[in-house]
Amino acid sequence: MDFNLDPKHQMIKEVCRKFADNEVETIAAEIDETERFPLETIEKMGKLGLMGISIPKEYGGAGAGYTGFAIAIEEISKSCATTSVILVAHTSLCASMIYNSGNKEQKQKYLVPLAKGEKLGAFGLTEPNAGSDASNQQTTAVLNGDHYLLNGSKIFITNGAHADTYVITAMTDTSKGLRGISAFIIEKGWEGFSFGPPENKMGIRGSSTTELIFQDIKVPKENLIGKEGQGFKMAMMTLDAGRIVVAAQALGIAEAALEESIKYVKERIQFKKPLSKQQIIQFMIADMATEVENGRNLVYKSAWLKDNGKSFGISSSMAKLYCSEMASRVTNKAIQLHGGYGYIKDYKVERLMRDARITEIYEGTSEIQRTVISSSILK
Amino acid sequence: MKIIVCIKQVPDTNEVKIDPKTNTLIREGVPSIINPDDKAAIEEALKIKDKQGAEVTVLTMGPPQAEYALREGLAMGADKGILLSSRSFAGSDTWATSLALSGGIKKIGNYDLIFCGRQAIDGDTAQVGPEIAEHLDLPQITYVSKIRSINKEKAVVERALEDGYEVIEVTLPAVFTIIKESNNPRYPNIGRIIDVFDNMSIDVWDEIMIKLESEKLGLKGSPTQVLRTFTPPIKAPGKMIEGNTDKEKVLNLLNNLYNNIVK
Ligand SMILES: Cc1cc2nc3c(=O)[nH]c(=O)nc-3n(C[C@H](O)[C@H](O)[C@H](O)COP(=O)(O)OP(=O)(O)OC[C@H]3O[C@@H](n4cnc5c(N)ncnc54)[C@H](O)[C@@H]3O)c2cc1C
């Protein structure tokens, strides 16, 4: 057993830290406040190799696996969860689904530009009536000669308004339930493809979350991913791995809250001494640090399992469940430690707490993670 | 064009602690980085590579861990990494270090340019670059802030001075020491990091391979003796003498001198 990062991952961590300090942290508060989608950062992340970090080299990626991916997301999330969610949706959902299940032509045409960061990706599974119950898809795709006719809508889609390439699911056979769900690649600009207004969110406010509207979109047959009826299974497989990086995102947010708190309690003087001299404050810091350490071990272990070809689904669910709830607890405590200042937007912890909250909801709510974990134990 | 960049792995802090008994740096627990001026030297070499093509070799003398700094140089885009490492090199001062590096450079051979950083943040001597130039009998330009033009025969560079710069033309091969203000080093690409660790190797050379006797190297070959180390006293910040007219400023200055010094 070895809990050290190997030198390769150590270097990825250092580079991502430096990148996040110089290019991400510097605009994080502004893009949150103004709800601005940071297009300039996406270009920089592409150059750095982040947009295809887990995708193998032969498809234009960096080939850093999920350990590299998790480390990068952790570091970037310490600075800005808006920026990291763009990567999560683009790489771990859209690009990974094409990598896992797409054919050669689809990989050349769509995956390579995604992995190189030349195109931005989004992943649309959720619908107004298909949230936790993702199998209840109402979007339909009807085969009509050399193309499918796509009708319906997707809601809450990350990168929605800014993406070029979308992986979406739709019913190709309504009589078969979840075995009637198929997955497709569609492109921005196709006739009949439009967007709802941007959602006004509590956190990750610089990220784009929109409705996708499909009205008689002609999707060429060759844009079906895998076979008809496999869409749900492929999406669930993709989400299994995606949870590792959502967990890493929550972990990074919590780490930032801990760092801010440590700095603050050492500086803030009340009753003629720093807050850090009060035992109750010391114990809060101890609890926060212990929870963060726990979360990190779960994230790195899940990534290690995935990179070593072992079964990782339950571990990634546990990591996602624990880290997301942990991030909410830790950011909440961070605000408490900052007192009134923590409630004011001038202090980073205010944003961290709002950003942490979403990690308990997307890519499977905590309740769904508990269902997944318990059913695997009690089966 | 063949460029050799000499780099040093240093502890990442300006507040390095010193062992009071041995008068040497305590390195434990301090993360290591490529010395900032040296990183700028790598970037300067890579800029030439990008523009007109060059083979860039990063060279360091250090313990086995210094391999990590070389790999970072490779990840930035250098083509080869060479580590001079052996017991015989331990305890080297700038003289012994520059001798060993010159030995490495001779073994690499066929070079057009040698880049060093201006000085290392853990020693601040700024001696190694100039000494390499002397060992190799090459022209040297220190404090290079900009390379204006370069071809196989000659280069035109700007050399930073305290209040400006001078423009110097030099024939190649030559030694430049680069200052960190000259550029913003690029981030290593993540895919390249993976390649560097999975598919590239670092050559490790000892004193025999660079044809130097161990008596001339390391502690034995180092004429420098550290007598004493101390923290320089902190200078009080300067004070601005204000006034609406020159006369008023002079009067205020005299008052200040009188009140604070004479009285
Ligand atoms: C900012 C943001 C970004 C998003 N990005 C994407 C994206 O890129 N792509 C995408 O496809 N989706 C995306 N989503 C959608 C997200 O994944 C869903 O919101 C999430 O899965 C929950 O679905 P829901 O909102 O319909 O809630 P519901 O499913 O209605 O859940 C409501 C509550 O009921 C609980 N619940 C539901 N069913 C059960 C059950 N069987 N047992 C116990 N409790 C249950 C839930 O846990 C939750 O607490 C995003 C959402 C947001 C807010």
Automatic annotation (TrEMBL), chain A:
What range(s) does the Acyl-CoA dehydrogenase/oxidase N-terminal domain occupy? Answer: 7-118
Checking Pfam families in the record gives: Acyl-CoA_dh_1 (PF00441), Acyl-CoA_dh_M (PF02770), Acyl-CoA_dh_N (PF02771)
This protein's record includes keyword S-adenosyl-L-methionine:
no
The residue stretches assigned to a coiled coil in this entry are none
Name the needed cofactors.
Answer: FAD
Q: Which GO terms describe its molecular function?
A: acyl-CoA dehydrogenase activity; flavin adenine dinucleotide binding
Recite the UniProt keywords alphabetically: FAD, Flavoprotein, Oxidoreductase
Acyl-CoA dehydrogenase/oxidase C-terminal domain residues are: 229-377
The residue ranges of the Acyl-CoA oxidase/dehydrogenase middle domain are 122-216
The record's PANTHER family line, in alphabetical order, gives: ACYL-COA DEHYDROGENASE, ISOVALERYL-COA DEHYDROGENASE, MITOCHONDRIAL-RELATED
The entry assigns this protein to a family as follows: Belongs to the acyl-CoA dehydrogenase family.
What is the protein named?
Acyl-CoA dehydrogenase
Q: What is the lineage of its organism?
A: Bacteria, Bacillati, Bacillota, Clostridia, Eubacteriales
TrEMBL record, chain B:
Q: Signal sequence: where?
A: none
- According to the entry, every stretch annotated as the Electron transfer flavoprotein alpha/beta-subunit N-terminal domain falls at 22-208
Provide a Gene Ontology MF annotation, just one: electron transfer activity
Tell me the superkingdom of the source.
Bacteria
Q: Which Gene3D superfamilies match?
A: HUPs (3.40.50.620)
A Pfam family reported for this protein in Swiss-Prot or TrEMBL: ETF
Which parts of the chain are coiled coil? Answer: none
SUPFAM superfamilies, alphabetized:
Adenine nucleotide alpha hydrolases-like
**PANTHER family, alphabetically?**
ELECTRON TRANSFER FLAVOPROTEIN BETA-SUBUNIT, PROTEIN FIXA
Please give the name of this protein.
Answer: Electron transfer flavoprotein small subunit
Q: Which organism is it from?
A: Alkalibaculum sporogenes
